[in-house]
Amino acid sequence: MKNLIFILLLITSCAKIPTQSVDLSNALKQEANRMHQMNIALVDYVFNEKKHMVNEFIANEYAPAFVQNFIKLLPPDTDVKREMPEIIAAINPKIDDRRDSLLSVLQVQKNAIVKQLNTDYQAFDQAFVALQNMLASAAKLNATRTSIYDDVKNLSGNKINLSAINTLLDNFITGAGSVGEKATILSSSIQLLLNP
Question: The dihedral of CA 41, 43, 45, 51: what is its sign?
């Protein structure tokens, strides 16, 4: 019987994890997902603002300066007012190319940032799933441990309290003091539990 008790103690001596840990980990995972979505939304917001800045820059600074420089290159006898529609038609593709180039670079950078955020989140998510599985397994182990403790207690006619023995063992392992002192206290405490 004492060998059976020792084996059961070895099997069930893992760290105790409350079942609420699984619920907490689910809540944390949901919060992490919410934060990831907020990060993506923030990146979208920032890059939409930058697109707006590009359009404002092109309309208010680049295009007027480009038109002025283009007009300076025209022959002096050109009637700029009369030729303006043709001038605009000639330079619009170049202005549009500049806008498209700037927007394209922004889009490439945005895609790179979002890709990295998604990659990081996927790695986090995989690690978190492994943690959740471990917590769920540990919670099941705790339930099994409690059931085994109760079964042994019933089999021994309520003489062997494995839960109390487990607590004594935990205190022996993590408690302060010399090993010899702790071993003596552990031995006498377990004997008291085995022989009430």
Answer: negative
Residue count of the chain: 196
- The C-alpha atoms of residue 65 and residue 79 are separated, in whole angstroms, by 19
* Contacts of residue 87, Cβ cutoff 8 Å, sequence gap at least 6: 67, 70, 71, 74, 80
- CA triplet 7, 10, 13: central angle to 5 degrees? 140
pLDDT at position 50, please? 94
Distance, CA of 94 to chain centre: 45
DSSP three-state, residue 60:
helix
In single-letter form, the type of residue at position 174 comes to T
pTM above 0.85, yes or no: no
Orientation of helix 162-174 relative to helix 2-11, angle to 10°:
60
How does residue 159 score in pLDDT terms, banded at 50, 70 and 90? low
Q: Choose among 100, 140, 173: nearest CA to 18.
A: 140
Q: What is the pLDDT of residues 23-69, one digit of tens each?
A: 777 777 788 888 889 999 999 999 999 999 999 999 999 999 998 88
